[in-house]
Amino acid sequence: MRLYAWLWSVVLLGAYAVVDWLYKTFLPDRYNPLAAAAGVALLGVVIVVKWVRGDFHKAWLKRQARRAERNSRR
Q: Structural domain of residue 50, as residue ranges?
């Protein structure tokens, strides 16, 4: 579970960098780092809510079960 926390942290930091760059490049007169952070925070909240609801976790469990079944057949 810790690996996924680090992975999502890196993904959200990368998303912040991209959104920040887009703001600076295409809307320099309206640049606001808080707006970029708010957008990425919203993305993070959506990811966490979906995880809590179990969408990602159920898919992960199914993949693990398929992988285990495939490996047991070999």
A: 2-73
